[in-house]
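2024-03-11 09:14:02 DEBUG pipeline.ingest accepted 1 chain
2024-03-11 09:14:02 DEBUG pipeline.ingest length=101
2024-03-11 09:14:03 DEBUG pipeline.predict start
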Amino acid sequence: NSYIFPILSSFHKTEQQKINRIHKVIGKVNACLKTLGDELELDKKLTTYVARHSYATTLKRAGVSTSLICDALGHSSERVTQIYLDSFENTQLKAAMKNLL
């Protein structure tokens, strides 16, 4: 099995069954992340999307190459990864500039 979290089984035969299962699991994980964020009194809602961005940003700031980040995120090309990373950095930059006003 090539997955870290093997949420699919032999029961999930059709594409729709796989999509439904993944959607259900992501919903459960997001609910748990929300609870965790609430308990920690975080000002940002935790989701799998936020976790993915945090993971990619941490790798980038640690000096990991875009090529390796691309592989880790499962993107189709390094260009997709670069756009992904740039868009998140722009959001952070705007938030930082807003604090200056």
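2024-03-11 09:14:41 DEBUG pipeline.report Helices lie at 15-39, 48-61, 66-73, 78-100.
2024-03-11 09:14:41 DEBUG pipeline.predict end
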